[in-house]
Amino acid sequence: MKLSLNHLAVYLSFLAIGGGVGLLSSRFFSPQSSFSEQLTPVNMTLPPDANFPNSSGVAIAPSVGDNVNFIATAVQKVGPAVVRINATRRVTNPISEALKNPIFKRFFGEEEEAIPQEKIERGTGTGFILSEDGKLITNAHVVANADIVQVTLKDGRTIDGNVVGIDNITDIAVVKLNSEKSLPKVKLGNSQNLIVGQWAIAIGNPLGLDNTVTIGIISATDRTSAQVGVPDKRVSFIQTDAAINPGNSGGPLLNAQGEVIGVNTAIRADAQGLGFAIPIETAARIADELFTKGHVEHPYLGVDMLDLNPGEKLKINQEGNIKVNQDSGILIKKVLENTSAQKVGLLGGDLIQKVNGRPVKIMAQVQKIVESSSVGDTMELEINRYGKILSLKVKLGPLPKK
Question: How far is CA 271 from CA 73, 208, 266, 381, 385, in A?
């Protein structure tokens, strides 16, 4: 008995149903469109006499006559340099692969030849232009494995681009646009001194809806990769309640002056009402390395850390591998083998009190210092080892490939 190809397609569809949805990056590409989520429209009516503080706390009065406020001003300034990215890639057709199985060949015989070996997948994201000669930054998952990249500017122009480099560790990628004319560019701001509660503006192409603007506040800073739910990344995130949906990935997060303070990243499918952005200092540093060398070397301390609290203290003491006496602090739970940390004598149970002479209280502070360093840099750590204060210098090595 021979089965039709329709039977096989139905069978494979049942196999595919039930896969969990984790990072949005893992489902960025789809055969016919990008995403199928629905937008919930949000209307915000502003009083005509409203004054809005900028990041320095100075009030900005909107123009009542033409309804231009600080949001519109920022968007008008940056909007021309924000682009839609259409990425295309060829992937192996799963049905064609399945037909190579002898079991399926038995039923379908020569019909295997009628199935194309590859299929085209397309995805849409956002990026923004860094320089007049067409250097562009976006998320790595937007252009990963793309064969063709095209960008569309706000003025309608479409330009081809070449992916220069991708760094999956930080989810940053850079593209060089093939344009003979000068292009609009963004102005980079400073994310080092962000204040929780200050304004945040996001521009992007969520769900394929071009030039969408959302506004909110900075709701937290220095969110670790583990807290956000992407432990395979090495970056601290800015958290905002400005809506960031699939398709926003790679777009700019702005302050009230229209300066870019982060790269929006749609990384969690379940993060309703929460968005995350890569700080612009991290993104710009990674982009510069990618444009210069085509790859990035990440510094590596070589320890497994955690933030102590009474619950963690109890848990660790019950495990019995190390003894913890304090209720708070940054605990080195494990020193990894063949690392600089092991060579200088760091031990599990050590508490990190200072890095390069500066007091640190949470693990995120240590990670941020490491991430902003370079391979080969030396970090001076002040360690509390069961009441004894030690000072150790650790030379940062490269992050292992695995």
Answer: 29, 19, 9, 36, 39
